[in-house]
Amino acid sequence: MRDAPGMIEDKIRQLASGPNFGTIATLLSDGSPATHVMWVDCDDEHMLVNTETGRAKFANIERDPRVSIVVWNADDPYDYVEVRGKVVETMAGAEARAHIDELSHKYHGKAYSNPIETERVILRVAPERQRS
Fold it and tell me: For residue 5, what pLDDT is reported?
């Protein structure tokens, strides 16, 4: 593990860009962790997680933006990476809707078809520590 402001490491980008699942751990109001299996993505500088504003994980990050994300290789779960950091930005609207469709195509080969109960939002996580 190393301090890693700036760029996402190559191995992390490789796993996050493929159809590999991840988890995001957020902190509940009492400080205990809550972990959720998620679709994941990244750009050059941030991990990206798409959720809804009505979900518990969103309320958790609004209160405390610290998170940990683990992504594992779908073909070998012993091959995994971890990013610890903070949610530094949220993006909603058409961009978040388009992103959930992109993720659905990556994981299922079709547009996202689950009902959207609140509003889709992309969580942009800036890495503070990366382990690959």
Answer: 55
Question: What's the structural domain count of the chain?
Answer: 1
pLDDT along the chain (132 residues), means of 10: 67 97 98 97 97 97 98 97 98 97 96 91 98 92
Q: Domain containing 84 — which CATH number? A: 2.30.110.10
Whole-angstrom CA distances from 17 to 23, 58, 63, 96, 121 are: 15, 22, 28, 17, 19
Torsion of CA 121, 50, 132, 109, to 10 degrees: -150
pTM for the structure as a whole:
0.92
CB 38 within 8 A of CB 24: yes
Q: Which domain holds residue 32?
A: 2-131
Of 59, 27, 65, 64, nearest to 47 (Cα)? 65
